[in-house]
Amino acid sequence: MYVHIGGDYVIPFSEIVSIINVDSMISRDTREFIRVCKEEGFLINIVDQKIKTFIITEEKLKNTKSIKHASKSIVYCTNIKSTTIYKRINKIKEWGNTYGVK
Prior knowledge:
single chain; 2 helices; globular; alpha+beta; four-stranded mixed sheet
Protein backbone atom coordinates (compact mmCIF):
# COMPACT_ATOMS: atom_id res chain seq x y z
CA MET A 1 0.00 0.00 0.00
CA TYR A 2 1.12 3.53 -0.74
CA VAL A 3 0.61 6.85 0.99
CA HIS A 4 0.57 10.30 -0.62
CA ILE A 5 3.16 12.57 1.04
CA GLY A 6 2.71 15.73 -1.02
CA GLY A 7 3.26 16.97 -4.54
CA ASP A 8 3.42 14.06 -6.97
CA TYR A 9 4.97 11.71 -4.42
CA VAL A 10 3.52 8.48 -3.09
CA ILE A 11 5.64 6.01 -1.17
CA PRO A 12 5.04 2.49 0.15
CA PHE A 13 4.25 2.88 3.83
CA SER A 14 6.11 -0.38 4.47
CA GLU A 15 9.33 1.54 3.73
CA ILE A 16 8.64 4.31 6.26
CA VAL A 17 11.06 4.19 9.18
CA SER A 18 10.11 7.43 10.91
CA ILE A 19 7.85 10.46 10.56
CA ILE A 20 9.30 13.52 12.27
CA ASN A 21 7.47 16.77 12.98
CA VAL A 22 9.90 19.62 12.22
CA ASP A 23 8.72 21.59 15.27
CA SER A 24 9.71 18.73 17.58
CA MET A 25 13.26 18.41 16.22
CA ILE A 26 15.03 19.45 19.37
CA SER A 27 17.50 16.58 19.45
CA ARG A 28 20.99 17.49 18.27
CA ASP A 29 21.38 13.97 16.86
CA THR A 30 18.24 14.32 14.74
CA ARG A 31 19.35 17.70 13.37
CA GLU A 32 22.79 16.25 12.61
CA PHE A 33 21.24 13.26 10.84
CA ILE A 34 19.14 15.55 8.62
CA ARG A 35 22.18 17.72 7.86
CA VAL A 36 24.25 14.69 6.81
CA CYS A 37 21.40 13.38 4.65
CA LYS A 38 21.24 16.73 2.88
CA GLU A 39 25.01 16.78 2.30
CA GLU A 40 25.05 13.17 1.06
CA GLY A 41 22.12 13.69 -1.33
CA PHE A 42 19.62 11.48 0.52
CA LEU A 43 17.24 14.36 1.24
CA ILE A 44 14.44 15.08 -1.23
CA ASN A 45 12.52 18.32 -0.76
CA ILE A 46 9.19 17.81 -2.50
CA VAL A 47 7.71 21.24 -1.73
CA ASP A 48 8.63 24.88 -2.18
CA GLN A 49 6.71 25.83 0.95
CA LYS A 50 7.61 25.63 4.63
CA ILE A 51 8.72 22.13 5.61
CA LYS A 52 6.51 20.63 8.32
CA THR A 53 7.57 16.98 8.29
CA PHE A 54 10.55 14.76 7.53
CA ILE A 55 9.75 11.21 6.42
CA ILE A 56 12.66 8.80 6.73
CA THR A 57 12.40 5.74 4.51
CA GLU A 58 14.47 2.66 3.84
CA GLU A 59 14.07 1.79 0.16
CA LYS A 60 14.81 -1.79 -0.85
CA LEU A 61 17.11 -1.93 -3.85
CA LYS A 62 16.30 -4.34 -6.64
CA ASN A 63 18.72 -6.28 -8.84
CA THR A 64 21.56 -6.37 -6.32
CA LYS A 65 23.07 -9.81 -6.66
CA SER A 66 26.10 -9.12 -4.47
CA ILE A 67 24.09 -7.91 -1.46
CA LYS A 68 21.10 -9.96 -0.43
CA HIS A 69 19.14 -7.27 1.46
CA ALA A 70 20.45 -4.01 -0.01
CA SER A 71 18.65 -0.80 0.81
CA LYS A 72 19.19 2.94 0.92
CA SER A 73 17.82 5.66 3.14
CA ILE A 74 15.85 8.54 1.69
CA VAL A 75 14.51 11.48 3.68
CA TYR A 76 11.52 13.31 2.19
CA CYS A 77 10.64 16.86 3.23
CA THR A 78 6.97 17.76 2.96
CA ASN A 79 4.61 20.54 3.97
CA ILE A 80 1.99 18.03 5.14
CA LYS A 81 1.66 17.70 8.91
CA SER A 82 2.96 14.51 10.47
CA THR A 83 -0.46 13.87 12.06
CA THR A 84 -2.10 13.98 8.62
CA ILE A 85 0.35 11.41 7.27
CA TYR A 86 -0.30 9.16 10.28
CA LYS A 87 -4.06 9.48 9.67
CA ARG A 88 -3.62 8.56 6.00
CA ILE A 89 -1.60 5.47 6.87
CA ASN A 90 -4.12 4.36 9.50
CA LYS A 91 -7.01 4.90 7.08
CA ILE A 92 -5.26 2.82 4.42
CA LYS A 93 -4.54 0.04 6.93
CA GLU A 94 -8.16 0.13 8.10
CA TRP A 95 -9.37 -0.08 4.51
CA GLY A 96 -6.97 -2.95 3.81
CA ASN A 97 -8.18 -4.89 6.84
CA THR A 98 -11.82 -4.36 5.86
CA TYR A 99 -11.31 -5.59 2.31
CA GLY A 100 -8.55 -8.12 2.92
CA VAL A 101 -5.90 -6.15 1.06
CA LYS A 102 -2.30 -6.07 2.28
